[in-house]
Amino acid sequence: MIQYQGRVYRPPSEADSLILQATLGCSYNDCTFCGMYRDKPFKVRKIAELKQEIEWAASAMGDVRKVFLADGDALIAKTSYLKEVTELCYAAFPNLRRVSCYASPQALDKRTVEEMALLREAGLTQYYLGVESGHDEVLLNLKKGIDAENMIRVAKKATEAGVKLSCMILLGVGGRRLTTEHALESARVISAINPRFVSTLVVTPVEGTPLYDQAQAGAFEDMDPAELSLELRTFVAALDLDGTIFRSNHASNYLPLAGTLPRDQPRLVAELDQVIASENPRSYRPEWARGL
Question: Domain with 279 in it: what CATH number?
Answer without folding.
Answer: 3.20.20.70
